[in-house]
Amino acid sequence: MMNKPTLLILAAGMGSRYGGDKQIDGFGPNKETILEYSVFDAIRSGFGKVVFIVRKEILEEAKALFVPKFGSHIKLDFVVQALDTRVPAEYRDPERKKPYGTAHALLCAKDAVREPFAVINADDFYGEDAFRILARFLTKEVRADLHCMVGYAIKNVLSENGTVSRGVCESSAEGYLKGMVERTSIARTAEGIFHQEGDERIKILPENPVSMNCWGFHPAVFEQTEKLWFPFLEESRGNLKSEFYIPKVVNSLIQEDMAKVKILEGGRIWFGVTYPEDRAHVMSSLKKLHQEGVYPEKLW
Out of the domains of life, which is the source (predicted)? Predict the structure, then answer.
């Protein structure tokens, strides 16, 4: 497979004028945003293009921010996720305020992506290893019936400042994803790592892989996703808060034997800002990576 893979960045959550938005807040020593590290790592791992998914209201602002920084280093494209994008007229509800989630964002990029591609969040730091192993999979292993995700051990993706939501994965002995369950209240305690919601308390082993929305897909996933999209719209009529998530699509592909999803062991480092108190940890972690030579003094 000769084409270089593409990196699809989910950035539709950015606020207009970027006021106080963690996705464009500067955390690096030179005020670098977290997504700048993802783009830097993608470039040196062999990706050939970056596609940003944004809302229409911030499209021009996003171009003004990113093109001067990345435009000379890698091909850039911008795709709008809007309420009516790929939504037939009969399903559009004038009362709805927000788009339909991450799998809807994926479908919005269908016309912009022809090659194998990775999908990440704009505001998560995934580490160089994740992009390197994704690039290898997307150039050598990916097939229409074989996608991947980068697995992160639950012990490495918690916040010391409160509970987190994570897609807890069940894997096969061969290293393939069997399914995932979204756990919305996970925290580390003196007794171990637990999900606790109401009377439900479930222990999660420290090495158990979780999804941090770091995926690798063959472009066949667009057609596979569309087969689930229209039934979702039908089932969600009148529900103004319904969301169509990538894990829902992945679980369906696995359960219906439409595709396998390989869990890659590239998730060695991760951090993000779930709570305001997490900011200091992110800043110190990035500073240390620069000092250790993982990143140059200035990214660009």
Answer: Bacteria
Which of 138, 167, 179 minimizes the C-alpha distance to 261? 179
List 166's β-bridge partners, or say none: 183
Environment class of 21 (CB within 10 Å of its CB; exposed 0-12, middle 13-18, buried 19+): middle
- Looking at this protein, which amino acid is placed at residue 105? A
Contacts of 109 (CB under 8 A, 6+ apart): 8, 51, 53, 79
pLDDT classification of 12: cutoffs 50, 70, 90: confident
SS3 (DSSP) at 168: strand
Read off the pLDDT band of 273 (50, 70, 90).
confident
- Amino acid of residue 109: A
Report the alpha-carbon angle 87-231-78, nearest 5. Answer: 35
Provide the strand spans (E) within the chain. 6-10, 49-54, 75-80, 117-121, 124-125, 146-153, 164-171, 177-189, 192-197, 200-204, 209-217, 260-267, 271-272
pTM of the full structure: 0.91
Mean pLDDT calculated for residue range 200-207:
92
Count the helix, strand and coil residues of the chain and give each as a percent rounded to the nearest 5: 35, 30, 35
Hey, what's the torsion of the CAs at 4, 140, 122, 262, to 10 degrees?
Answer: 160
Output the average pLDDT for the chain. Answer: 90
CATH fold of 6-151+211-240+260-291 reads Spore Coat Polysaccharide Biosynthesis Protein SpsA; Chain A (3.90.550)
